[in-house]
Structures are given as C-alpha cells and as structure tokens.
Amino acid sequence: MTGTTRYTIAVARYFEAWNSTDPAARTKAVAAAWTEDGGYTDPLAEATGHDALAAVIAGVRELFPGFAFRQTGTVDGHHDTARFSWELVADADGSAPVAGSDVIVLADDGRIRSVIGFLDRVPTA
C-alpha cells in the first residue's frame, strides 16, 4: 500500500468515526480508526483509548446535531504522519461554522496512534 493510500484510508476511517450518530456504529468505527491506546488532543478535549474517544465524539455529536464533518483539500503526509483540514457542515443549509486542521500519526497497522487537532474557525458567542 502506498503512503498516500495509507493516509487516505486512515482519514476516511477518522471521518467515519466522527460522523457516526449511532453509538454501536461509533464504537466500531473508533476501533477501526484508532489503536487501542490511541489518543486525540485539541484545544477543547483530550482523550486516550477507544471508550474515551467515543465519548468525546458523542459529546460533539450532541452539541452539533444535524452536522457532518467533511474533509477540505487533500491529505498531505510523509512517513507515519499526515495532515488534513476539515469543516463541520450543517445538513440543513451547508453552512460550516467550525473548521480545523488535524495532524495524525499512524501505527504500523494503518490505524491512528495520535491526533493533534487545531481549530481554525469557531462560532462567536
């Protein structure tokens, strides 16, 4: 598998987890995307392990019902590290009040070992 394909698959799995609205599907998607001890850190959250990751995602889904995460641009990577940008898009009108950029580090099996997230655009009050 080429590096580019490896990054693309990892990012697709990442978005599948973040966009899962069903708890059982989310649990399965998190396990497919992250290693058992995988982590996620952004300015608002920090989580390690599948249960904690699923809980963080569930919390975001509760705050933003009717929204979906969408990749913007292409995935750029080298070695075991990749970066990409995203928006949180409203199903109703296509608005995207939140956007960010994430950096992931992959394990040998292609799952995410860690994510460092940055928020590039957030709603004001």
Mean pLDDT: 96
Number of strands: 6
> Structural class, please?
alpha+beta
The CATH architecture comes to Roll
Main sheet, how many strands, which sense, barrel? 6 strands, mixed
- Measured as a percent range, the helix fraction is 25-40%
Poorly predicted runs are none
Tally of domains = 1
Oligomer: single chain
Order of adjacent strands in the largest pleated sheet: 2-1-6-5-4-3
Question: What sort of overall outline do the alpha carbons produce when their principal axes are compared?
Answer: globular
Strand content: 35-45%
Q: Count of DSSP helices? A: 3
Distance between the termini: 45 Å
Protein name: Nuclear transport factor 2 family protein
Domain SnoaL-like: 11-114
Pfam families: SnoaL_2
Give the structure's gist in a few sentences.
The protein is built from 3 helices and 6 strands; from the N terminus they run H-H-E-E-H-E-E-E-E. The protein has 125 residues and is α+β, with helices and mostly antiparallel strands.
